[in-house]
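Now for my pick.
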Amino acid sequence: LATELSWEYNIQPICLPVTPQLRVRLFKEFIVTGWGLNELYQPHQVLQEAVLPLVSNADCQQRSSIDLTEKQLCTGGGHRAETGFGDGGGPLGYATNYNGAMRFVQFGVVSLRVETRDGKDRYTIFTRVASYMDWIVENIVP
């Protein structure tokens, strides 16, 4: 970075699901954050946050036209908050106990949005971070 970061309460490195327990853990809902575009296609000035319900891959596949693998997660439905244009690559996470402290752990990366077959709803598909943890750990440069 051009300037040094100063860690503050709301500026921290994100945690990854490195423990075996966190790699298989799925919550009923997750938090997604992003700076995506607003309804006027302008960038948000404030970081946006939404709570998204987890949808099983089987239900997501049945209601949409996408084939999912175990390396993906599906959220959304029910006309609740969702990701927007410009949110791709953003984190999907959850605040959980991590080595004795509450930390925000990243479980997914925003990949794409898909509509249901009937066009009445949308889902967000995420790349599942746990599926790539072995590679991430092997390639981290200390």
Remarks:
- The first helix runs from residue 20 to 24.
- The mean pLDDT is 87.
- Residues 56 and 74 are 7 Å apart (CA to CA).
